[in-house]
Design a protein that fits this description.
The protein has one domain (about 10-245): Rossmann fold. Helices cover about 45% and strands about 15% of the residues. It is built from eight helices and seven strands. The protein has helices spanning about 20-30, 45-55, 70-85, 110-135, 155-175, 195-200, 210-215, 225-235, and strands at about 10-15, 35-40, 60-65, 90, 140-145, 180-190, 245-250. The longest helix is centred in the middle third of the chain and has 29 residues, at about 110-135.
Length: about 260
């Protein structure tokens, strides 16, 4: 199943756009007719993706941006609006995960890094996206939390707490902006075929068999399945969905 949407004339903003879930979602937005701002801290990857999608005929703009720097985020939003005239949809996906470590052994530096990228980055992105969307009179934002934002998990204190924080930010922003025609929701992915998952498996932090066994659906997800959920949350098909943290995890958190 490969649902399609028509976002002709609309503008999407995707962070962490050059790999994994962000890449799949940016591509899906472009294929669905949206102009897409490709936001990532990796300058070379941004440029390569921009050229790839432009050569395929898609209207995209690559923007190098560190989401931990609010001024860079504001500039990225302004560049998007200058280039395309609006900002209608956003997928705030940038995040980091470290090696499994018990809380008593985690460093304050890593805790701060995790929260600065994942939670503070979402906060900064929403702050400036929402300002623009209020001027326009509407929009849709989807934040990338995780199934780890819905459950407890050993050896992932910093990561889990940051992903829980994203859900809190999502719900608060949703309540503040729903009456203005702006819908804010979150997705909570389980295990997907991404470079992040591949790295965890390669480092011996997770066995592929365990990732599969943890999902009642019996497999690891394809990144485009997560992208489909994001696009649905940005579409008119989800027009009454507000402030939801949607598990997209093959049933993992339902157990």
């Amino acid at each position: 199943m490969n649902p399609t949407y028509s976002f002709d004339g609309r503008v999407a903003f995707v962070t962490g756009a050059t790999s994994g879930l962000g890449l799949a979602t940016a591509e899906k937005f472009a294929q669905s007719g949206a102009a897409v701002a490709l936001i990532d801290v990796n300058a070379q990857a941004v440029r390569e993706l921009e050229l790839k999608l432009q050569s395929a005929g898609y209207p995209v703009l690559g923007i190098v941006c560190d989401v931990t720097d609010e001024q860079q985020v504001q500039n990225a939003v302004e560049q998007t609006v200058t280039a395309f005239g609006s900002l209608d949809m956003a997928f705030n996906n940038a995040g980091v995960i470290g090696s499994p470590t018990e809380l008593i052994d985690e460093t304050a530096e890593w805790y701060d890094r995790t929260h600065n990228v994942s939670a503070r980055g979402v906060w900064a992105c929403m702050k400036h996206q929402l300002r623009q969307m209020r001027l326009q009179g509407g929009g849709a934002i989807v934040n990338c939390s995780s199934m780890s934002g819905l459950i407890g998990q050993r050896t992932r204190s910093s990561y889990n707490s940051a992903k829980h924080a994203i859900i809190g930010l999502t719900k608060s922003a949703a309540l503040e902006n729903a009456h203005l025609g702006i819908r804010v929701n979150a997705v909570c992915p389980g295990s997907f075929e991404t470079p992040m998952l591949a790295s965890m498996i390669e480092r011996g932090e997770l066995a592929r068999e365990d990732a599969i066994a943890g999902a009642p659906i019996g497999r690891i997800g394809d990144a485009h399945e997560l992208a489909a959920a994001v696009l649905w949350l940005c579409s008119e098909g989800s027009s009454m969905v507000v402030g939801v943290a949607l598990p997209v995890d093959g049933g993992s958190v339902a157990q």
